[in-house]
Fold this sequence. Notes:
The chain has 323 residues and is an alpha/beta fold. 32% of the residues lie in helices and 26% in strands. It has ten helices and 13 strands. The chain has helices at residues 20-24, 31-38, 52-67, 91-99, 115-128, 152-155, 215-236, 254-264, 275-278, 285-295, and strands at 2-12, 17-19, 42-44, 76-80, 105-109, 134-142, 160-171, 180-188, 196-198, 211-213, 246-249, 304-311, 315-322. The longest helix has 22 residues, at 215-236. The site of oxa(dethia)-CoA has 19 residues, from helix 2, helix 6 and helix 7. Residues 29, 33-34, 37-38, 113, 152-153, 156, 215-216, 218-219, 222, 252-253, 256, 280, 311 line the site of oxa(dethia)-CoA.
Amino acid sequence: MIRSRVIGCGACLPANIVTNDDLAKRVDTSDEWIRERTGIRQRHIAVEGEKTSDMALGAAREALIDAGIDAGELDMIIVATTTPDESFPATATVVQSRLGMTRGAAFDVQAVCSGFIYGLSVADSLIRTGAARTILLIGAETMSRLLDWNDRATCVLFGDGAGAMVLQAHDGVGDNSDQGVLNTRIFSDGRLHDMLYTDGGVSSTQTVGKLKMQGKEVFKHAVTNIAAAIVASSQAAGLEIGDIDWFVPHQANQRILDGTARKLGIDPAKVISTVALHGNTSAASVPLALVTAVRDRRIKRGDLVLLEAMGGGFTWGAGLIRW
Ligand code: UT7
């Protein structure tokens, strides 16, 4: 059986850091409120002219070096993003050109904060069916461009960045001992549109709009849906929650991470959290957290790693990887 093995990963964050105290100078908020209600201490924000593709490219280059391959060996590039450089073409094609890749295919996936899990699901399917051997998957966002910087309820939550992984076909025996993606599970419920959306878009207002969120409602659904996705993915592999070594969640709010862990009886020491340093970077948040834990050697070859996310749509999902 063909498995998609992760052969390298990388990350890129804008150099510009914005602290809670910096935000307290712009809107009526405080470092204390933001830390207590979200766990966020700072976020990286792209400066003027710094685009999603710049960060995607930075993460991609690091992932290719880590994988020990060059761009010519890639069959596909998938970029998960809600904040493309342009309405078209896909940001993935910009990355393709800047990497000097002249063959294969490149396209974007849009599932907001769940984008990386959706991208993983697509990449894994393409590899397992033999349509591609090597895929570069990137989650990259400049969420700062969608924020109303006068709305304290949302502007303190988000940040910019990118994370990437290279997946490659590899022979497995078809059970949980295989290295690579064991399964992915993706879900959506379009009836919940109004809880998290932008009040603009190409075909409606011809503007990008600003992010609108009913925070409390999103919070409740996040804990329920993420827990359900974790259970769906682990059950599909015939595993108990306790068998999983590391949980790499979407980084929206430390209280969501804690609430989900409590609900499922997950040991909090197994949950990777970077929300304090990055804030919510949407599709970039899962790979940024993953890369952090791989680089500091918490996640090691052979470990069972469960990635999970939830975002606008609503969309949500999980993916289980034997590292
Ligand atoms: O990535 C997609 C998924 N997104 C999420 O998962 C976000 C989910 N939601 C959340 O993380 C939380 O709901 C928030 C962090 C957005 C808000 O936390 P909360 O505990 O639900 O607070 P709240 O919205 O109920 O607001 C409590 C109070 C309100 O004041 P009153 O009405 O009690 O007087 C808000 O106006 O806190 C006020 N408030 C703030 N105060 C200081 C809201 N934002 C701020 C702020 N600074 N930045």
